[in-house]
Amino acid sequence: TLDRLVADAIVRFDPETAAQRALEDLETRHARVTLNHVPDGILATGRLDAVVDAADALELNTILAQIAASLATAGDTDPLDIRRAKALGLLARGELPHQPDQPDQPRATSSGRRRQVVLHVSLTDTALHGCGDGIATLATPTGRPLGPVTVEQVQQWCATPDAEITVKPVIDLLALVTSTGYQPSTTLREQTVALHRTCAFPHCDRPADNLDLDHIHPHATGGATASDNLAPLCRRHHRTKTHTTWTYTRLGPAEHLWTSPHGHQFLTDRHTTRDVSPDLHDTG
Fold first, then answer.
1. Residues 6+ apart with CB under 8 A from 132
2. Whole-angstrom Cα distance, residue 47 to residue 256?
3. pLDDT at residue 264 tops 50
4. Number of structural domains, the chain?
5. Cα angle value 82/163/44 (rounded, 5°)
6. Among 48-52, 92-96, 100-104, 145-149, which range has the highest average pLDDT?
7. Domain that holds residue 46
8. CA nearest 109: which of 120, 98, 117, 100?
9. What does residue 172 show for φ and ψ, rounded to 5 degrees?
């Protein structure tokens, strides 16, 4: 109660401070999606953590309640929390549940977003003879592997009404892919993201999806737009590499040696960062 009274007093008597705090609070907005592994390693559910504008939060709560109620009216017997979770999936695809008392209402809006399913297919002798393990790998839209899922789950995703299914060959992570010009091709970007998974800067774990692709050897001085000269960097570390004396060298696929302005060195790969700095105080 005291905190609320103080907050009300700030709004009334110090509106500039209140406005500044509101702007700072808005800067904390985010929406993160993480995938949950059950004990045997299968991806079954995902977790959504978000901080949104207050009005957006109220509107989202209202529409989730409405869709959950519509699902119940249509015969869905799942608990309310599950129906609200289903409602998020419907919103993501731009779909609305059919209302029995509104026969003219379509199942999906005309601007509904279709589920995009991209299958990278790899066939082995065991799979051709029906001896596969029934496990697939779920990846982000740009190809970064996230974890195993069951083939049955993939079948259900593909069976979603109006799903758009694209079949592609598996990306060879070790092949040398090149592009003409500065911008990498779609295939080159997908390969680079899938190979690195995160920002290549030491200790940065930002997922490589939608990050900048940096030319290790600058394109302006002859660096090629190719698999052996690209690495994903988040915008902050891309600027750090471009505008400071941080440098790095590619040692192998997704493996780089970074050197800081003070001479410290870090070896990064797709899993870890290791400090390999020489003894800077050794005068021998």
1. 124, 126, 151
2. 32
3. yes
4. 3
5. 40
6. 48-52
7. 2-92
8. 98
9. -80, 110
Using an 8 Å Cβ cutoff, are 97 and 70 in contact? Answer: yes
Q: Which residue has the tokens 């060879």?
A: 172
- Sequence length of the chain is 284
Residues 201 and 248 both lie in one domain: yes
Q: In what order do the strands lie in the sheet with 255-259?
A: 247-252, 255-259, 265-268, 273-275
Q: 86 to each of 82, 90, 150, 181, 258, how far by Cα in Å?
A: 6, 6, 20, 44, 45
Rounded Cα–Cα distance for residues 182 and 36 (Å)? 38
Closest by Cα among 90, 188, 194 to 141: 194
The strand pair at 255-259 and 265-268 is best described as antiparallel
User: What percentage of the chain carries pLDDT values higher than 90?
Assistant: 37
pLDDT at 176: 93
Question: Dihedral of CA 193/195/200/203: which sign?
Answer: positive
Question: Each residue of 146-170: pLDDT tens digit?
Answer: 666 777 778 877 887 778 888 887 7
- The Cα 206–Cα 144 span in angstroms is 12
Residue 208 falls inside a structural domain: yes
Q: What's the token pair of residue 266?
A: 């870090």
Tokens of residue 260, six digits: 């800081």
Residue bearing the bigger pLDDT, 46 or 160: 46
On average, the pLDDT of the chain sits at 82
Does residue 104 belong to any structural domain of this protein? no
Strand 116-121 and strand 164-169: the pairing is parallel
**What pLDDT is stored for residue 85 in this prediction?**
93
Q: What percent of the chain lies above the pLDDT cut of 70?
A: 84
For residue 120 the two structure tokens come to 């990278």
In a domain, 63, yes or no: yes
Examine residue 235 and state whether it is found in any structural domain, yes or no: yes
Phi/psi class of residue 194: alpha, beta or left (left: φ > 0; alpha: ψ in -120 to 50)?
alpha
Q: Are residues 79 and 142 in the same domain?
A: no
